[in-house]
UniProtKB/TrEMBL annotation:
Residues annotated as domain Glycerol-3-phosphate dehydrogenase NAD-dependent N-terminal: 4-162
Role of this protein: Catalyzes the reduction of the glycolytic intermediate dihydroxyacetone phosphate (DHAP) to sn-glycerol 3-phosphate (G3P), the key precursor for phospholipid synthesis.
Gene: gpsA
Entry protein name: Glycerol-3-phosphate dehydrogenase [NAD(P)+]
UniProt-annotated binding residues for NADPH: S12, W13, H33, H34, Y50, K107, A142, R257, I281, E283
Amino acid sequence: MKQKIAVLGAGSWGTALALVLNENKHDVTLWSHHPAQIKEINEEHTNTHYLSDIKLPENLKATENLKECVADADAVLFVVPTKAMREVAHKFSEVCENKPVIIHASKGLEQVSHKRISDVLKEEITPEHRQDVVVLSGPSHAEEVAVKDVTTITAACENHSSAQYVQELFSNRYFRVYTNQDVIGVEMGAALKNIIALGSGALHGLGYGDNARAAIMTRGLAEISRLGVAMGADPLTFIGLSGVGDLEVTCNSVHSRNWRTGNLLGQGQDLDTVLENMGMIVEGVATTKAAYELAEERKIEMPITEAIYRVLYNGEKIASVIEETMLRDYKSEQEF
Ligand SMILES: NC(=O)C1=CN([C@@H]2O[C@H](COP(=O)(O)OP(=O)(O)OC[C@H]3O[C@@H](n4cnc5c(N)ncnc54)[C@H](OP(=O)(O)O)[C@@H]3O)[C@@H](O)[C@H]2O)C=CC1
Ligand SMILES: O=C(CO)COP(=O)(O)O
């Protein structure tokens, strides 16, 4: 059945997901805080900065008016960077006059509180303004979804019927959605894989090869699972789409902003310059800090996250932290 859907965040992922919903014949409106970008989407039918070369359908509209955008919406999709999520959710709750299903497709942990995004949304949007919160996450570069490349993804919610609702909203011949009830595992996998992608890119930038990439991905998955399980996740989730699937797509692709950032750091560029030139969110940088602090708090061993934290936040040299990480106390692969 045709649904009215508001997409909050007109960056690369918000636009690509709006295209999927539009393809599925839903009534979709994008919300952005940039008048020039809204004009471009409505009049030129492009969003060049975020999805160059993509022609948008003429019936895909954008607006700056949040109240109008969410009025009567059956579902509201939040897809702004993690650092903006609480602010945008708060603005939404001030103008919302109905009870839509809340979906989010962002990947990160809130700074300082270390909270998952669905918890931030639940705190800011009281049950009188919403139905369930569903997480949409998995291996899915916006650039490939926008050209209808085959993609699989997960809709996670404790309430199976809400996950099924989101599955039906988005699924089509090139975009296949699975349901999952392990929200903690899905959100932790999604957030933490970006840290490992920074590392994978850095190894590439330094000239290391396939063995090094396999090492960081495999041992990265081990530490993602350790922290995730400590937070209450089902360990099996980490071999699914939002675990190994998203780790693979982010650690091996030039589409990944996290991988590209790591690659340029490995080549010797400085972080501020790289982030400034990227012009899009690189979630792994802030997530590294949140995960490092969370791991310290919970006494979980995360040597790769710690190494990347030391490079990003203490200015240590990548080559020396790699050597230290390789030579730390030897251990069994079977230790969890
Ligand atoms: N790109 C991808 O392939 C995928 C991304 N994701 C995740 O989706 C989330 C969004 O990423 P993505 O779309 O790629 O990011 P982009 O950087 O491409 O776009 C982010 C959008 O959010 C807007 N925004 C930022 N802050 C605010 C705010 N306070 N109020 C309103 N709008 C705001 C930005 O506007 P402005 O121009 O002002 O910055 C921009 O339009 C991230 O968590 C990312 O990890 C998940 C899967 C795939
Ligand atoms: O999450 C993504 C693909 O699943 C996109 O990764 P980047 O944010 O690194 O581009």
